């Protein structure tokens, strides 16, 4: 599946969340990640994220799609971290 993950995490925990999300998805902008991920890996990511989060103050939103092709993406201005083909 293709996901976009957005988080709003307290300043003390944001570094840990950034490192965690980079292990599973592509960083595209501050606190925003996207990429293909299996349902099992997504569940694993969210379980680790829950350990980092303060559930009273922090939040994560995950937008899911079957495939990237079903998602229209438009970027205005400079794209922070372009996803391209590389070898």
UniProtKB/TrEMBL annotation:
Coiled coil: none annotated. Its cofactor is Mg(2+). Gene3D superfamilies: 3.30.70.240. One of its GO terms (biological process) is defense response to virus. GO terms for molecular function: hydrolase activity; metal ion binding; RNA endonuclease activity. The gene is cas2. CRISPR (clustered regularly interspaced short palindromic repeat), is an adaptive immune system that provides protection against mobile genetic elements (viruses, transposable elements and conjugative plasmids). CRISPR clusters contain sequences complementary to antecedent mobile elements and target invading nucleic acids. CRISPR clusters are transcribed and processed into CRISPR RNA (crRNA). Functions as a ssRNA-specific endoribonuclease. Involved in the integration of spacer DNA into the CRISPR cassette. It comes from Parapedobacter koreensis. Its EC number is 3.1.-.-. This is CRISPR-associated endoribonuclease Cas2. NCBIfam families: cas2. It is an enzyme of class 3 (hydrolase). HAMAP family: Cas2. Mg(2+) binds at residue 8. Belongs to the CRISPR-associated endoribonuclease Cas2 protein family. CDD domains: Cas2_I_II_III. Keywords: Antiviral defense, Endonuclease, Hydrolase, Magnesium, Metal-binding, Nuclease. Homodimer, forms a heterotetramer with a Cas1 homodimer.
């Amino acid at each position: 599946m293709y996901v976009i993950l957005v988080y709003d995490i307290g300043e003390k925990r944001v570094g840990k969340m950034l490192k965690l999300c980079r292990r599973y998805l592509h960083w595209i902008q501050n606190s925003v990640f996207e990429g293909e991920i299996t349902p099992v890996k997504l569940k694993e990511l969210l379980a680790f994220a829950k350990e980092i989060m303060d559930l009273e103050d922090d939040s994560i939103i995950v937008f899911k799609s079957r495939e990237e092709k079903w998602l229209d993406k438009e970027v205005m201005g400079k794209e922070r971290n372009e996803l391209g083909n590389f070898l």
